[in-house]
Amino acid sequence: MKIISADYVLTMNSNLDCIKDGALLIDGALIKQVGTLQELTQQYPEAAVTQYPKSLLMPGLINTHCHSGLLRGTAEGLPVWDWLQQFIDPMHRVVTPEDSKIASYLCYAEALLSGTTT
After folding, report:
1. Coil/strand/helix, residue 102
2. What is the pTM of this model?
3. Which of 30, 50, 78, 116 would give a disulfide with 83, using CB separation of 3.0 to 4.6 Å?
4. What is the pLDDT of residues 47-80, one digit of tens each?
5. At residue 62, what are phi and psi to the nearest 5 degrees?
6. Is 61 exposed, middle or buried (0-12, 13-18, 19+ CB in 10 A)?
7. Could you give the CA distance from residue 67 to residue 35 in angstroms, rounded to a whole number?
8. Sequence-distant (≥ 6) Cβ neighbours of residue 69 within 8 angstroms
9. What are the residues facing 8 on neighbouring strands?
């Protein structure tokens, strides 16, 4: 078992509690307990502790709608029809499958780095 701690732990319990000096007790791939670092280290003195100062532990973010292409976020000031006709449609004609693949990987890496897990 191990304990991971941070300045704050954001829970998803019914009160959406945020625990100052919080910690998670991890057993294998499971979170067994959530509490303060002091509580968990007293209950499990044998557990290895990893601390992340100036950090927040929270559940992973879920993105239910994602555009993972090279053209996302471009020419945003245009009305949608102008945007499609003047920018997106011409670009779709010249983007290669390799360009699309690389752009997708870049978008997925960005999502992971920002905490998106699903």
Report:
1. helix
2. 0.67
3. 78
4. 999 999 999 999 999 999 888 777 877 788 889 8
5. -115, 120
6. exposed
7. 37
8. 100, 103, 104, 107
9. 20, 56
